[in-house]
Write a structure and sequence with these properties.
Blueprint: E1 2-8, E2 13-20, E3 35-39, H1 41-51, E4 55-62, H2 64-77, E5 80-85, E6 91-98, E7 104-107, H3 116-130, E8 135-139, H4 150-161, E9 164-168, H5 171-180, E10 184-185, H6 189-196, H7 203-216, E11 221-225, E12 231-234, E13 239-242, H8 255-268, H9 273-287, H10 298-309
Helix pairs in contact: 1-8, 3-4, 4-5, 6-7, 8-9, 9-10
């Protein structure tokens, strides 16, 4: 199904994963055949939306051979992509799982510098695609070189064009975006703590901190992801803590992006906010049921969603 959703990934990656029997220093460890997947916040959101039956336009910088591989992987998945060429190569991440104890080792490489002319091209591409878009989803970290207020500029653009901005990021970029005002903000507990200036948050103080953030900043909806404890939905009119269903966890990679995909899908298909947060939790939880860098299985997510609706 075609949709009017645009996703933005400023720090995309190739996720390379494998398994070994055990991990020991100074030993040559025989790895299984590696698996390559397109990665990065907005890209994973687009991939998640595709699993739910929605097509999104995804914008990202791409450079070098890893950038070419990234585009090939997305093409195989049928993702509508708009890449901006960069001088520096696209980064790669490496994930290893020990089969003896199911422990996961994640090696995240730093994002490569984006130059000013490349940043301008990324903004222009978003400006071009955002006209008529209902939702713009900016997810993931900012690489070196990108101005810290870049997402704030995207927020101003979406307001001008009448789109709704969904942001899932961290650090200074998160502060700038929140200050400018967005439709939906998805911080985790650490990010909400940073924004609110409260060092320790429990269930009650999470709601208070998010409510204060909405009263102080021009943000409409805040969904605080709380890992296995679920999520907290807060608007100026109401708040709700929604526990996550209990499942056998195999990996947490991609759970946050899956949650965003679930929420954007729900919003795009006319669901209310209570249904939206439950679809997000269902997709995020379903992602933890898979090994390695796998996103959620649609059937798992829908089954979990149905269970959450009954609570």
């Amino acid at each position: 199904m075609k949709s009017n959703i645009v996703t933005l990934t400023l720090s995309p990656a190739i996720d390379k994963s494998t398994t070994v029997d055990f991990i020991l220093p100074e030993h040559k460890m025989r790895c299984a055949v590696p698996k390559y997947e397109a990665g990065g916040g907005g890209i994973n959101v687009s991939r998640g939306l595709k699993r739910l039956g929605l097509h999104a336009k995804t914008v990202f910088p791409a450079g070098g051979m890893p950038g070419q591989l990234l585009q090939e992987l997305l093409e195989k998945e049928g993702i509508e992509q708009y890449s901006v060429p960069t001088k520096n190569w696209t980064r790669e991440n490496f994930i290893v799982v020990s089969t003896t104890n199911n422990q996961q080792y994640r090696f995240g490489m730093p994002g490569n510098e984006i130059y000013e002319d490349e940043e301008k091209l990324i903004y222009q591409k978003i400006e071009e695609l955002a006209s008529g878009a209902e939702y713009i989803v900016a997810s993931g970290s900012l690489p070196p070189g990108i101005h810290k207020d870049f997402l704030a500029r995207i927020a101003r653009l979406t307001k001008r064009l009448g789109s709704r901005l969904v942001v899932d990021t961290s650090g200074e970029a998160l502060k700038h975006a929140a200050d400018e005002g967005i439709f939906l903000l998805k911080p985790n507990l650490a990010e909400l703590s940073m924004l609110s200036g409260i060092s320790e948050l429990d269930d009650e103080s999470v709601i208070d901190a998010a409510k204060k953030l909405i009263s102080d900043k021009p943000c409409e909806v805040i969904v605080v992801s709380m890992g296995p404890n679920g999520a907290c939905l807060v608007t100026k009119d109401f708040s709700e803590l929604v526990p996550a269903p209990t499942v056998k966890k195999k990996s947490t990679v991609g759970a946050g992006d899956s949650m965003v995909a679930g929420m954007v899908y729900a919003l795009s298909t006319g669901k209310n906010l209570r249904e939206t947060v439950r679809m997000g939790i269902a997709c995020g939880t379903a992602a933890t049921m898979n090994h390695g860098t796998e996103l959620f299985n649609k059937d798992d997510a829908l089954k979990l969603y149905d269970g959450l609706l009954k609570r």
